[in-house]
Write a structure and sequence with these properties.
- The chain has 162 residues and is of the alpha+beta class.
- It has 3 domains: 52 residues, N-terminal domain of TfIIb, CATH 2.20.25.240; 57 residues, no CATH class; 35 residues, no CATH class.
- Helix content is 25%, strand content 24%.
- It has 3 helices and 8 strands.
- Helix 1 runs antiparallel to helix 2, helix 1 packs across helix 3 and helix 2 packs across helix 3.
- The model has no long low-confidence stretch (mean pLDDT 85).
Length: 162
């Protein structure tokens, strides 16, 4: 069996000896053709039912050690965002500490990782709006909640802050 990771867009990537391959096309009899993700490399692999049937051809570059670990960490952050109510900052911080120091240079910035988690939660509707439906005084606050629009408004007196 081959090892797979998930891309930022949710597609499968094949990992063979620390080289990462993206799906090029699917042929007859569910044969999948994979190409090295380094654009200037012409290495190819063939699989059927997630089993390698043709070994990779020679690469014209060295493997990027640690890239697989970073990709797996980013996918793990998204999974944690789905199943826990941890703050984005906590998910990012604890995930970053799991990466070896030798591979830290492959990590994107904290801001990028935070946006990854936030976007994943937004796309999957993981934000709980119940906490925003009422004010601290228990008055209605969320007035309209449509698929493409939300309107928040409080009933009552407003006090000017000076």
């Amino acid at each position: 069996m081959a090892k797979f990771i998930v891309s930022q867009k949710g597609h499968k990537k094949l990992v063979v000896d620390e080289y990462i391959f993206t799906r090029q096309r699917t042929g007859i009899n569910n044969k999948v053709y994979w190409i090295c993700e380094v654009r200037t490399c012409s290495s190819r692999v063939h699989t059927v039912a997630d089993v390698i049937i043709k070994a990779p051809t020679e690469h014209n570059h060295a493997p990027l050690h640690g890239k697989v670990a970073v990709e797996e960490m980013r996918e793990g952050m998204k999974r944690r965002a789905e199943v826990t109510e941890e703050k984005t900052r906590q998910i990012v911080h604890s995930s970053m500490t799991s990466i070896k120091l030798d591979h830290a240079h492959l990590l994107p910035g904290k801001g990028t990782l935070s946006r990854d988690v936030q976007r994943h939660r937004q796309r999957n509707g993981l934000y709980d709006l119940d906490q925003f439906k009422k004010t601290v005084n228990d008055d209605e606050f969320l007035r309209v909640n449509e698929d493409d629009m939300m309107i928040f408004a409080a009933q009552g007196k407003y006090y000017e802050i000076s």
